[in-house]
From TrEMBL:
GO terms for molecular function: hydrolase activity. CDD domains: HDc. The keyword Hydrolase applies. Keywords: Hydrolase. It comes from the Bacteria. This is Phosphohydrolase. InterPro entries: HD/PDEase_dom, HD_domain. Residues 29-130 form the HD domain.
Length: 218
């Protein structure tokens, strides 16, 4: 159970993030945050992780994104000052900062999440890129970029070199193979893995239907 102070902080964080991301269209809108937070809570309970830290880190995890700030450092400093201004206890605020800075790390070879709570939040974020939500987001992203959702001349099920991929226009269907179908093997927690398996199977079934319908076979 969360304390009254924790519940108040979660309420304020929700308001802050909702205001910040209401008009975001890069795939990191408020409802992405909402879903990640809901999944983080579900996994945290199953895994016995600190619910308050997971919930707060999930709410704030995209605020420092370089797409929304001049730089990642500036973004992280904003999150830090929000935590200070809202009197989040020091151990929790340090933990949240540690999670968010590891998650937003864009350099090569992402460092693994150091704590159970970090693993939970990263799993929750990855879950939103797969399953029914992942399918919605991949097509929304592709459409927003004005791309085709599928191009049979660059069948991603065939072996292709990195270069061939880059030269071909990235389609929504391509992105399943480049990233989405790989995410289930990157899950950190047991419960995250269980959820990812169901969502992965759903994407696999979807792709099977997609190719069958493309050829009028279903
Ligand atoms: P995050 O920052 O949440 O790890 P991204 O910013 O890479 O993820 O992607 C946000 C969403 O847009 C995800 O659901 C992802 O699948 C989708 N997306 C990213 N790149 C592409 C792409 N090249 N084609 C289609 N969808 C994409
Ligand atoms: Ni995210």
């Amino acid at each position: 159970m969360e304390t009254i102070l924790q519940t108040l902080i979660i309420q304020k964080a929700t308001e802050f993030v909702r205001n910040e991301l209401e008009n975001e269209s890069s795939g990191h809108d408020w409802y992405h945050i909402y879903r990640v937070t809901q999944s983080a809570k579900t996994i945290a309970i199953e895994e016995g992780a600190d619910l308050f830290v997971c919930e707060l880190a999930a709410l704030l995890h995209d605020i420092a994104d370089p797409k929304l700030n001049i730089s990642e450092e500036v973004g992280l400093a904003r999150v830090n000052s929000w935590l200070e201004q809202n009197e989040v206890p020091r151990d929790a605020s340090e933990h949240v900062m540690q999670i968010i800075s590891t998650m937003s790390y864009k350099g090569g070879g992402k460092p693994p999440m150091a704590t159970l709570e970090g693993k939970v939040v990263q799993d929750a974020d990855r879950l939103d890129a797969i399953g029914a939500m992942g399918i919605a987001r991949v097509f929304a992203f592709s459409g927003a970029k004005g791309r085709k959702f599928h191009d049979p001349s660059i069948d991603p099920r065939m072996d292709m070199s990195e270069e061939e991929y880059r030269n071909g226009e990235d389609t929504a269907i391509n992105h399943f193979y480049e990233k989405l179908l790989k995410l289930k093997d990157l899950m950190n927690t047991n419960y995250g893995k269980t959820l990812a398996m169901g969502r992965h199977q759903f994407m696999q079934d979807y792709l099977d239907r997609f190719y069958a319908e493309w050829e009028g076979k279903k």
